[in-house]
Amino acid sequence: MKAEQNDMKPPRGYLNNTFLKWSAMLGWIDMVDTKPEIPQNIEVFNDLEFKNTEQRSLFLDIYREKDIGNPTPLIIFVHGGSWTKGNKKDYLIYLLSYAEKGFVTASLSYRFSQEAKFPAAVEDIICGIKWLKNNAVEYGIDSNNVAIVGGSAGAHLALMAAYTMGNSFGIEDCDSGPASHKVDAVVNFYGPADLTTDYAINRKETRFFIGADYNSQPDKYLIASPIYYITKDDPPTMTFIGTLDELVPLNQTNTLDQLLKKVNVYHDYHILKGWPHTMDAVRPVNNYT
Predict the structure, then answer these.
(1) Which residues pair with 75 in a beta bridge?
(2) Which of 3, 18, 83, 268 has the most C-beta neighbours closer than 10 Å?
């Protein structure tokens, strides 16, 4: 899947987080519809089981045009939620929007930190990719044209899946066939890329995800970091982050940008001035992205 340059100008942001929060409380921010109606021309396949784990079965949803013809590029969405919460319906606005543009779209569930520690969630996303590619013919998917998109913790998982070709990560536990989990592009919405920084190791969400503190198992934090796997063979990458993000600092995505450029991997990097974490929930940013 070829990455395309976004020629739109980013929407004007806010002076600081205080002004942003007051604007939200006063209803001055135009938010996206998180529960849009399913258009009549879109066909939905809900709750397709792609993996059975000790903790629970995992499911995915697929969206596509009813009159789909030739094999069509696939966009996979991975929701965020600090690796502890969230729902595969969280990106419904994107799933439907891109399905109406002619793509097949899919969203995955994965195990949370309270159910299983790293690398369980990464393994689940990889298994979901493999299931979709192994069932490509049935759902009209072009298995050679696959992109993965994630937000926050979901972006971390998307980057891990995209950059770990050649690493096992429990692939033998997947319930699907022989297709690889290779993707052709990855989109990172404000996801952490290096879990070995002071910022990351001091966050309770990271420790809960890893299942240990940094001092006791530093190597585990390293192998849970997408930047650890960057090579010249990684797929084109697109990143969005706001300068008011209080959860993922800019140095996370700046480091990702530097390392990708060092090995000549295409990186379309968007720093949106005056916007916070989960900024794509606001309509102007959503339209831009």
Answers:
(1) 105, 147
(2) 83
Give the residue from 184, 182, 200, 185 showing the smallest Cα distance to 255: 200
Please, where are the H alpha helices in 101-175? 120-134, 136-139, 153-163
pLDDT for 272: 84
Count of residues in the chain: 289
- Give the C-alpha separation, 285 to 289, whole Å: 6
pTM for the model: 0.90
Cα four-point dihedral sign 144, 57, 212, 240: positive
Out of 3.10.20.600, 3.40.50.1820, 4.10.410.60, 3.40.50.150, the CATH code matching 18-288 is: 3.40.50.1820
Q: Determine the Cα–Cα distance for residues 135 and 231; give it in Å rounded to an integer.
A: 29
CA atoms of 93 and 179, how far apart (whole Å)? 29
The number of beta carbons lying within 10 Å of the beta carbon of residue 166 is: 10
Which percentage of the chain shows pLDDT scores above 90?
A: 73
